[in-house]
Amino acid sequence: MRMVKRFSRSRWGRVCFLTLALSLASALLAGLGVGVVDQAKAQSPQILMSGTAIGGKPGQSPLSKVQFNHQKHEAAVNGNCDACHHTGSQEPCSSCHTSQGSPEGGNVQLSQAMHDAKAKASCVGCHYQETRKPECLGCHRNIAPGPKKDNCSVCHQDPKAAPAPAVPAQPDTVEIGSLSKRYGACTFDHAAHVEALKAAAKGDLAKAFHSGDAALCQGCHHHTPVGETPSKCGTCHGKAFQKEDPSRPGLMAAYHIQCNQCHKAMGVEPVAATDCTGCHAPKK
Amino acid sequence: MKRRNFLGLAGAATATVTATALTGNAKASGHSFEGYPNSYGVLFDASRCIGCRQCEMGCNKINSENKSEAKPWINLPAKDASVFATPPAEDTVRTDSTMFTLVNKFEPQALGGKSPVYKKFQCMHCKEPACASACFVKAFTKTPEGAVTYNGSVCVGCRYCMVACPWSVPTYQFDKLIPYVKKCHMCHPYITSGKAQVPGCVGACPMEALVWGKREDLVKQAWERIGAVPGKYLPHVYGEHEMGGTNWLYISHVPFAQIGLAEDLGETPAPELTSGALGLVPLVACLWPVLLGGIWQITKWKDRKAGEATQQAVAEAVALERAKAGK
Predict the structure, then answer these.
(1) B228 touching A, CB under 8 A?
(2) How many CA atoms lie less than 13 Å away from A267 in the CB half-sphere?
(3) DSSP 3-state assignment of A175?
(4) In terms of Cα–Cα distance, which of B31, B147, B69, B53 is closest to B104?
(5) Distance in Å, alpha carbon of B114 to nearest chain A alpha carbon
(6) Which of A54, A106, B34, B147 is deepest in the core (most CB within 10 A)?
(7) Which candidate from B81, B84, B229 shows the least CB-CB separation from A144?
(8) Looking at chain A, which residue has its C-alpha nearest residue B208?
(9) Residues of chain A contacting B232 with CB distance shorter than 8 Å
(10) What is the pTM of this model?
(11) A257 touches chain B (CB under 8 A)
(12) In sequence order, what are the residues at sequence separation of 6 or more whose Cβ sits closer than 8 angstroms to the Cβ of residue B141?
């Protein structure tokens, strides 16, 4: 009886000591900084965000749920939760931004809160800002901010969707001789340009959104579906200022706009744009 | 002031005010000119121009070849290849009499003053040209095709056009014995004769920074480009409304004032600024002589009547006095 009593007293003592130590440690951590505690409150890495239709009931949607990797986003904003949780509280977005909109969320619907291209805290707005880096601008310079009508599935991925198509066979060099009456033909190093684009798009963000390397081809071959062998530029770009589509550039302009504007946007100008003979060998 | 003088002046003033009101109405009906429908123009996109000056070469080529062109004509000097390496400095904004068009390099503050932006400059081909309204021999014509053309055979060399132009476009051959005014004609003679499909500069542009088309389509296309990538361009089509609208249009990703295009010109067509005052001239010239002549005639008639009455009264008085004295 006495032994039992002593044993139980010592166990209580240990519990008390542990409790004291833990509370001291947590007080110390709290003193060190709230951010550390917030990060310690680990989120599950993958969050499934519902693809609720606008104004619909939660979970009812024709769209697949978005797989949102909270950990990677935490790392991307350097642990600054306020980058997305703009009110300072860590409540889920949908607590204020309901699918129908509520006064607490400024009547901004959940779908708007996710897709607003101008808001800093929205998915689309923040990702658009990411595409403003020089290494992305070559292709992304002419892509307007905001969701496009045919690319919902980029984020709302069907888990059973087919894997990204393979990159079709491609030439190492391409001879461009459209101006051969006035200049020598240009030898375009296709392989080097593909490698440069691959190097520019090697980050996690680009990998997550580019559906494989085949997507990089679309930067230049802009109307070719991913994974298909592109047709020649001259198929669509013929003479300039045609009545059917006056805004479609002619072949000469299509090449020059593509080359010059991409090089300028990416900040890669081995030849000055004003130096014709830098690309076009003078004709002898 | 005598009462009749005052009444006369008041009458003249009333007549003039009425005349002004009439002219005002005439002016209002006259300036609803919306430009010729289906007229052609060019859209310049500053974000596309790379400053290669092929447009200048294209202009020189088409305009130098035409030796058979009736007077006045010039052989624009072909530029040597070195111009590609050294785009002109910012201070050479204007064309001179040896050229119709000129590409200038700017380093606008909007891009941090480091990145170059190029602008091609030439006649804007106003819908209601100031040069044509200032010219008293009708040497300038606004053609229904959109171009403003110059006929040197009637030009007297007064150079009013050069003063009138808000963009200082017309130039003068000060070095010639028989000088002419020089300015871009949008290749009007070549296009109407079928020698060229598009102006020389437009055909030479490798970037399609110059787009040829009907003005109304170009305005639409310009706004489409502005709307396609929000934030890329400034939401303004230069020339859509400037000075009543021009057939040469500009869109840009930097403020127009920073690439040498004045933004303080207003939207009033230049002829409208003077048409009110000038419209009064014939009325004043016709009305005032008639009116004042009439007042003068009436005054004279009244003076004569008064004189006659006085003379009669004097004669009567004298006759009366004589009759009294004769008694």
Answers:
(1) yes
(2) 8
(3) strand
(4) B53
(5) 13
(6) B147
(7) B229
(8) A253
(9) 141
(10) 0.75
(11) yes
(12) B132, B148, B149, B151
Return d(Cα A186, Cα A180) in angstroms, integer: 9
| Token duo for residue B237 | 């089509």
pLDDT tens per residue, range A217-240 = 988 998 888 888 899 999 999 888
Q: Taking a contact as any Cβ pair under 8 Å apart, which residues of chain B between 66 and 85 contact chain A?
A: 81, 84-85
- What does the pLDDT profile of chain A (284 residues) look like in tens digits? 444 445 445 666 666 566 666 665 555 444 444 333 344 345 667 777 766 655 556 556 677 788 888 988 998 899 899 999 998 888 888 889 988 888 988 999 888 899 988 888 899 999 999 998 899 998 898 788 888 877 788 888 777 777 778 888 889 999 998 888 888 888 999 999 999 999 999 888 888 888 788 888 988 998 888 888 899 999 999 888 888 888 889 999 999 999 999 999 999 988 888 777 888 888 76
Helix and strand tally (H, E) in chain A?
A: 10, 4
Give me the total of CB pairs closer than 8 Å, taking one residue from chain A and one from chain B.
Answer: 59
Q: Quick check: A239 contacting B, CB < 8 Å?
A: no
Asked if A256 lies within 8 A of B207 by C-beta distance, the reply is yes
Minimal Cα distance from B115: which residue of A? A264
Cα separation, B240 vs B246, whole angstroms: 6
DSSP string, B19-57: HHHHHHHHHHHHT-----TT-EEEEEETTT-----HHHH
Q: Do A253 and B208 touch (CB under 8 A)?
A: yes
Residues B206, A256: C-beta atoms closer than 8 Å: yes
Using CB atoms within 10 Å of the CB of residue B35, give its burial: 0 to 12 exposed, 13 to 18 middle, 19+ buried: buried
> What is the Cα gyration radius of chain A?
28
Q: Give B97→chain A minimum CA distance, Å.
A: 25
Nearest CA in chain B to A250: B208
